[in-house]
Amino acid sequence: MNLKDLPKQKAKSAKRIGRGPGTGKGKTSGRGQKGQNARGKLPITHSHFEGGQRPLIKRLPYRKGKGNRKVSKKPIVVNLKTINVLPKGEVVTIDSLIKYKIVDKNDAKIYGVKILGDGTLSNSYKFNIKTSKSAAEKIKKAGGEIMASKSK
After folding, report:
1. Which of 2, 49, 117, 135 is deepest in the core (most CB within 10 A)?
2. DSSP string, 41-98
3. CATH: 3.100.10.10, 3.40.1550.10, 3.40.30.10, 3.30.565.10. Which one for 76-146?
């Protein structure tokens, strides 16, 4: 391919306003006569202008934390009494809780899951998930086992 074979391209030049009456864009420069649009730096052209009323972003309260994110992400709480839904001898993990529809898949992956000690266990299970101290005691009392490295 040679330079002469390339298609001709012409960039459109910027509109030069305020350059005298002969150009057709002199004096008011295409802004009409008076009014808000004719004056200054046109502060109303931004997308979040609300017609002069107090803008939404200034009506909302300040929130702590960088970028107003939620400051801490706490895990989803599952009590021992809901674990009785699982079949006997099941290994309790995040995947098994998702499989038996105890927790939502997306929320469990984002926030994590923690077992708390409310209720009693009717069967013995192996737990490979975070547990509270009271839940750990009840699991061992029911003949279960905790395989997770950390229980908080």
Report:
1. 135
2. T-GGGSTT--TTSPPHHHHSPP--SGGG--S--PPEEEEHHHHTTSPTT-EE-HHHHH
3. 3.100.10.10
